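Students often ask why inverse folding is considered easier than folding. One informal answer: many sequences map to the same fold, so there is more than one right answer. In these notes we will look at a single instance of the problem. The structure comes first.
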């Protein structure tokens, strides 16, 4: 029997080789850097549109709940807020319908995107005035001696939604392009 010297692996089997001079740790780090760059590209492309649709969905759904009497846990607060903001002109079910219309409109415009998202952000800014106004107009509902009430905490958490709207605005508003 004759033996044939084989430099790597069995005869006819090519083993993967690493380029000469590249250490496995460096190769792993280079792979990680490429994977991270790919993920960053994906996130830059899709994260803000996803945030826009998610924010729109939140407002569309919670706004629609206000069209169903008794479905929104904030029904009384919405009515009181409208009465204060309009000096008693608008209240009751009219306030609920107006709030629902504003929130659903803002939500749907954000979901549609494009130029509609810009209009949706303006409508959303109007909604945020109403959403945040109980902090000043109805302090008895928002604050207690121990700190913010559950309603107050609910309202204050809207800071996250406002920030999301600002991030979306940074993407959809027209203006000078980055160089």
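Output (designed amino acids):
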């Amino acid at each position: 029997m004759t033996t044939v010297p084989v430099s790597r692996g069995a005869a006819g089997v090519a083993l993967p080789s690493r380029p000469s001079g590249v250490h496995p740790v460096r190769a792993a780090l280079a792979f990680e850097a490429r994977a991270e760059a790919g993920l960053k590209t994906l996130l830059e492309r899709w994260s803000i549109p996803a945030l826009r649709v998610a924010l729109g969905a939140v407002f569309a759904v919670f706004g629609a709940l206000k069209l169903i009497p008794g479905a929104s846990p904030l029904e009384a607060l919405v009515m009181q807020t409208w009465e204060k903001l309009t000096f008693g002109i608008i209240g009751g079910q009219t306030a609920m319908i107006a709030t629902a219309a504003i929130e659903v409109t803002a939500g749907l415009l954000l979901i549609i995107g494009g130029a509609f998202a810009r209009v949706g952000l303006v409508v959303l800014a109007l909604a945020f005035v109403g959403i945040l106004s109980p902090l000043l107009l109805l302090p008895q509902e928002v604050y207690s001696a121990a700190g913010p009430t559950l309603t107050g905490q609910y309202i204050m958490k809207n800071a996250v939604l406002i920030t999301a709207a600002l991030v979306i605005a940074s993407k959809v508003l027209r203006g000078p392009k980055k160089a």
